[in-house]
Amino acid sequence: MTPVLTTSDDTTGVAVTDRPHAVRLSHVHKTFGRPGTAAPVLDDISLDVAPGEFVTLLGASGCGKSTLLNLVAGLDSPTAGSIEVPGGRPALMFQDHALFPWLTAGRNVELALRLAGVPKAERQAEAERLLDLVRLGGAYKKRVHELSGGMRQRVALARSLAQGSDVLLMDEPFAALDAITRDVLHDEITRIWAERRLTVLFVTHNVREAVRLAQRVILLSSRPGRIAREWRIDLPQPRRIESAGVADLSIEITEELRGEIRRHVQH
Questions:
Q1: What is the per-residue pLDDT across 122-171, written as a single tens digit (0 to 9) for each?
Q2: Does residue 82 share a domain with residue 145?
Q3: Which of 56, 82, 201, 211 is most exposed by smallest CB count within 10 Å?
Q4: Domain of 134?
């Protein structure tokens, strides 16, 4: 098959929520290496993410979760298959905040606004509005070294939102944070997702995090990554990571994940 990557701006005037899907992956394969020694990373991934849906990708280290996210972001191309993001290029938030330390929090956000084409006269006000949205009002002039780890991730989130996309890709953005800070940011991303009606594709290896946040959890098998199973999460939001419903479903998913890891080890 010939690889195809399709991203197109919406010129129809139809709202994002009227599209049949926000992200569509059709029989996506990805290999790395030269012919003859190429190693398959993703194998025949087909997945539709609905507008406004929150989906988590879960799997063991090395199963291709981040590779899949990079493909959707347009940072790499599939070896075969196609990827469609009808609303245009998604916003991407990495595990590391990747803020420029010589810029203030506000200027880091403004840089994304400039790249998104926001006029210079409007950037500061919009950056301050986005910092308010992530509960960092008053932090516009703070340097990166003045911010805690959780605050830096909030700035990184504001910068991602500044890109103006309705699709947000998040690659283990809270993995390096302590449990309490991560719990607070779970509340924040859930709130912002609901307020902004975002489509979120969230990569994690933390089962409880996946269940707490998502409407749907996708489990990838160990390399090559295939969709092994999915769960639709009917628990009402907001959820607590320690709640009985989250805990019970996390146990079930963890057992499936352990089974995938064991199958990989045996082979």
A1: 999 999 999 999 999 989 999 999 999 999 999 999 999 999 899 999 99
A2: no
A3: 82
A4: 97-164
Out of 143, 164, 185, a domain closes at 164
**248 shares its domain with 170:** yes
Total number of domains in the chain: 2
Last residue of a domain, one of 116, 148, 164: 164
Kindly provide the b/e burial profile for residues 200-230, where b requires at least 16 CB atoms within 10 angstroms of the residue's own CB. Answer: bbbbbbbbbbbbbbbbbbbbbbbbbbbbbee
Cβ-in-10-Å burial (0-12, 13-18, 19+) of 118 comes to: middle
Can you point out the beta strands (E) in 139-194? Answer: 167-171
Output the six-digit token pair for 225.
Answer: 């990554």
In the predicted model, residues of the chain with pLDDT beneath 50 are 1-17
